[in-house]
Amino acid sequence: MNRRSFFKMLSFGSMILAGPLGLMAGFWEKGEKNYWENGIFRQKSIDISNIESGIIRARIDNSWLEYSIKKLPSDFMEWNLGSRLKALKAMREGTGGFTLGGPHSGMVATWGGKRKDSVFTLNNAVKGIGMAPASGKVDSFIEHMVSHGNDDMRDKLDWLIELYGNHENFDPRMQTSLELYTSRDFETHTFLNIMENPAATIVFLDRQSFEVRSIARIVHPGDNTADEYEKKLLKYVNRIHGFFHGEFSIEFPLLIFYAVEVFDNTPGNKKGVRIMPPLL
After folding, report:
1. What pLDDT, in 10s, does the model give residues 23-34?
2. Is 270 helix (H, G, I), strand (E, B) or coil?
3. Which residues on adjacent β-strands are paired with residue 31?
4. Residue 98: helix, strand or coil by DSSP?
5. Of 4, 64, 148, 244, which has the fewest beta carbons less than 10 angstroms from its beta carbon?
6. Listed residue (158, 13, 30, 6) closest to 89, CA to CA
């Protein structure tokens, strides 16, 4: 075989390899079920029709179960908001900032869905976790961020310090996040698990360590069946993400983690004691 024929064959072989691999890009990163219709998804494994009474229903392992939503305990709230304030003030003074630990970075464990690239459904992902504004205040917070999106970062930090300095600004029953990476062509393990089995536990690692066991709600920006507070909360969480990190051209799906149980995993005298609801 001469040199010209060898390189021709090599080029042809590369095309054969590249073709199937190119077609398979994204194939493995999809679930075995289709949750999408007309470019959006709707979570059908959760029922929030009785949410105003503090009750949420979820389909866990193919059984519909009822859960009582609880307020996050004062120890958790003091740690969470206090840690955020400390980090924001350090950023304002130029002496520090957020770390990989603390209330912002929650390790979210889920199970139950199935993606084509794994024999497991169990998954753990570190996500940016935030507080949910009280329903009576969410509109004014969104308006402020829209009006002051181009402010100097120091002015933004001043507002955030004021925001987190008042516990009454937030609904103590939930934590929030965004599902940043899921799309029709790339579905995360977290997305698939929550769509199929909306139970999630969040672990926060710090000198104090808490675990929030929750029912997880996921809302697509185009889901017109979401209730009015969910729609506002989706805008708020996207806005505050952009307010701090810079604006994005799209809105991301919202994650709401409704608290059911909280454990204090702090090393020492706690080591995994349930603190909410209190044990009898």
Report:
1. 344 789 999 999
2. coil
3. 115
4. coil
5. 4
6. 158
The per-residue pLDDT for range 63-98, each reduced to its tens digit, is 999 999 999 999 999 999 999 999 999 999 988 876
For residues 109 and 143, the answer to whether their CB atoms sit within 8 Å is no
How confident is the model at residue 151, as a pLDDT? 94
Q: Treating both helix axes as pointing N-terminal to C-terminal, what angle do 74-93 and 153-164 enclose, rounded to 10 degrees?
A: 160
Residues across the chain: 280
Task: Pick the closest to residue 256 from 222, 232, 225 (CA basis).
Answer: 232
The pTM for the full model equals 0.90
Tell me the torsion sign for CA atoms 41, 43, 44, 45: positive
What do you get for the CA distance between the two ends of the chain, in Å? 83
Residue 45 in 3-state DSSP? coil
Q: Report the run of H or E that residue 160 belongs to, with start and end.
A: helix 153-164
Q: How many other β-carbons are positioned within 10 Å of the β-carbon of residue 116?
A: 11
Which DSSP symbol is given to 120? Answer: -
Please compute, for residue 72, the number of CA atoms within 13 A of its CA located in the half-sphere on the CB side: 26
Q: Residue 233's closest CA among 165, 88, 131, 103?
A: 131
Tokens, residue 43: 């979570």
Report which of 191, 201, 217 is spatially closest to residue 56, judged by C-alpha positions. 217
DSSP run (H or E) holding 92:
helix 74-93
Please report the beta strands in the chain, taking only residues with DSSP state E, as ranges in sequence order: 36-37, 40-41, 46-47, 55-60, 63-68, 105-110, 123-128, 130-133, 170-178, 199-204, 210-219, 254-264, 273-276
- Please write the tens of the pLDDT for every residue from 198-223: 999 999 988 889 999 999 999 999 99
Question: Mind giving me the DSSP string for 172-187?
Answer: EEEEEEE--S-BTTB-
